[in-house]
Structure formats: C-alpha cells, structure tokens
C-alpha cells in the first residue's frame, strides 16, 4: 500500500500536469472554498433535492458561467486547451441516474464528501467506504460488465465545435445566460441545526 | 473572521481555481473528483495494475486526483477547524433527523449504499459534479450537459420521494 502511495506521487511528478505541490495546493484551495461556503453539508445537497436549498446550484452555475467565458478566451490565446469527455449515452444516462439518486440520499458528491469527512462526519466516512468498494467492483468488472453498459463513444463535441461559424459572441451568450440563471434561482436555505443561528451569520459583504 | 462566505464569492473563487487549474501555468487539465476513488481502491486492496485495464486507463488521472484529494482533506480540515470552527464529530446530519428518520443505523446503511452506487454511477458516466458539471459545462461539453440534466432530474425526483418534505414529527 505504501508503494502505491509513493507511486502516486511519482506518477504526478513525471506526468507533466503541474508539479506535486501545485496539484496539492489546488486541492487545498478546493477544500477551503467548499468548506468556507458550507456547500459540503448534507443540508445543501439533500436540501436541494427537496428544493429547500439552492446554494449549490447558484454557486455551481455562477462558477460555470464565469469559467466558460474564461476558458474560451484562454483557449483562443493558447493559454489552455479543451479536455472534453466523450458522449457515451449508456454511461451518461445510467451513470447519471445512479449518481443523482445516490447524491440525494447521501447529501454529498465525490468532491464535497472528503470535506465533510474532514469536518468530522462519520456517516460520510461510512459512505466513502461504500464508495471504495464501488470503485473496486467497477475496476474488477470493468471489462466484463461496465464497459458494455457505457456504450460506444459518439465523439467529444462541445458547443464551440458544433456550431459552425461560432464566435466569441456564442460563448458570451452561453456564459451570460448561465450567470443570469445563477442569479435568478431564488435563494433558499436549509440550516444545519447543529449550529443553529451560528450558520446564519453569513458575512454581510 | 467570517464564519462563512456567501455563494457568489464561493462561485467566483471556484471559477478562478478552475481557470488556474486548466491553464498551462496550472495543471493543463480540468478538476475532477471521482477517479481517485477506484484509484485508491486499487492501492488499498492491492490490485496489480497490469491485470486490470481500468487501472491502466486511470493511472495518470487517478494519481493526479489522489494528490489533489490529500490537499482537499487538509484544506477542508484547516478551514473547519480554524476558520469556520465547525469541526465536530457527528454520525447523523440534522437534516436527515428532521426529514427522514432518527435512526443512526438507517443513516449509516443508506450512506454506505449511496456511496457504493454513487461511485459506480460516476465512473459509468466518466465524471461527477466536479468533472462533468463544473469542468465539463465550463468547456460547453455536450457530455456534461446530458449528465447535468439527468442528474438534476433524478436528484429532485429522489428528494421528493425519499424524504418527508414536511418534516417528521417530534416525539
């Protein structure tokens, strides 16, 4: 196991996608942002599934709107490139259904789960053990079962590649619309009662 | 120190982090957060990468996310312990107690089952909230939009039937 962890650091060190330190700091900031906004809490995602809390979609849509415009211009300036995931209908639909159901019940996603564990939530830790076994089952039966469910790749389209004569206005419209949605979704909150009014002390900035 | 930052500052910061990560001075790749799970499962259960095609496929991205995850755990801990000060051991979210039931056993069993299927689902789809929704939609990827619509719809349908939205009675 220790070999595996050393191997992980060595892989990142030579794969040329940021140094080990850079990747670690990206994680540090990701964890900090999620924790500081409280979106890692059960009440935020499960609350959204009950339509009693809208902080997660508001924050997510805002981040997507800003980044979509940023990434487009960064790609134009050769400062970044697209890394699009393929359309595999079986995987996206069946996987999406399993994911959506589990996310509503667990109240976390794989990105916010670790932060919830870092906050001391034992139930999330139990969920993570379930996840590790899920990861094991997926790895072991990938060739025999899961690859078949995922289906053929239908390519890796994005809006920029699909619309002929796409120009900066296309992305400004897309990003602008997503940002507008994030602002227009009515703000609703379900509180974690363990902290009572403590959580309501949101900064006034 | 503020106990919490509002959603819009969080959204702007998250966008900045994603832009840095995908840029050539960052990592030249998007943020993802579900490939590390099978990667760690492989390490933990001592699977030999040579024997599993999936482990070979995720060798690089799994390692990248694994290192990121260590940062996430430490960043989340530092923030919860020293900034927001809401680090506390607990086994049951208060929202579950209010809208589902008061049984710790029920919460732990459902957590385990949901954790299991969440990772199977994410790996089938090739991404999760971070990889598809955040990173994929930001690249206007069609795969991310299909995933986003399916997940949002099933999330809300599940929430409707799984929880008692009026709240369970106190007794």
Word description of this protein:
The complex is a heterodimer of chains A (205) and B (171). Chain A has 205 residues and is mainly α. Among the domains of chain A are: 1-37; 85-156, no CATH class. Helices cover 66% and strands 0% of the residues of chain A. Chain A has helices at 2-15, 20-37, 42-49, 55-76, 89-106, 113-118, 122-140, 142-150, 159-162, 168-184. The N and C termini of chain A lie far apart (46 Å). Chain B is mostly helical and 171 residues long. In chain B, 67% of the residues lie in helices and 0% in strands. Chain B is built from eight helices and no strands. In chain B, helix 2 (36-44) packs across helix 4. The interface between A and B is large, with 146 and 134 residues.
Give the structure's gist in a few sentences.
The complex is a heterodimer of chains A (205) and B (171). Chain A is mostly helical.
List the helices and strands and how they pair.
The complex is a heterodimer of chains A (205) and B (171).
Chain A: H1 2-15, H2 20-37, H3 42-49, H4 55-76, H5 89-106, H6 113-118, H7 122-140, H8 142-150, H9 159-162, H10 168-184
Helix pairs in contact in A: 3-5, 4-10
Chain B: H1 7-22, H2 36-44, H3 53-57, H4 59-83, H5 94-99, H6 104-125, H7 129-138, H8 142-162
Helix pairs in contact in B: 2-4, 7-8
Question: Which features would summarize this protein structure in a list?
Answer:
heterodimer, A: 205 residues, mainly alpha, 10 helices, globular, disordered C terminus, B: 171 residues, 0% strand
Sequence of secondary-structure elements of chain A:
HHHHHHHHHH
Shape of chain A: globular
Silhouette of chain B: globular
Q: Counting H and I runs of at least 4 residues, what is the number of helices of chain B?
A: 8
List segments of chain B where confidence is low: pLDDT < 50 over at least 5 consecutive residues.
none
Give the termini separation of chain A.
46 Å
Number of strands of chain B: 0
Percent in strands of chain B: under 5%
**What structural class is derived from the secondary structure elements of chain B?**
mainly alpha
Strand count of chain A: 0
**How large is the share of residues in beta strands of chain A?**
under 5%
Query: Fraction of residues of chain A in helices?
Result: 55-70%
Note the total helix count of chain A.
10
**C-alpha Rg of chain A, in Å?**
20 Å
Could you spell the SSE succession of chain B in H and E letters?
A: HHHHHHHH
Described by strand count, sense and barrel closure, the largest sheet of chain A is: none
Biggest sheet layout of chain B: none
Identify the quaternary structure here.
Answer: heterodimer
Largest interface pair:
A-B, 146 and 134 residues
Contiguous uncertain segments of 5+ residues of chain A: 197-205
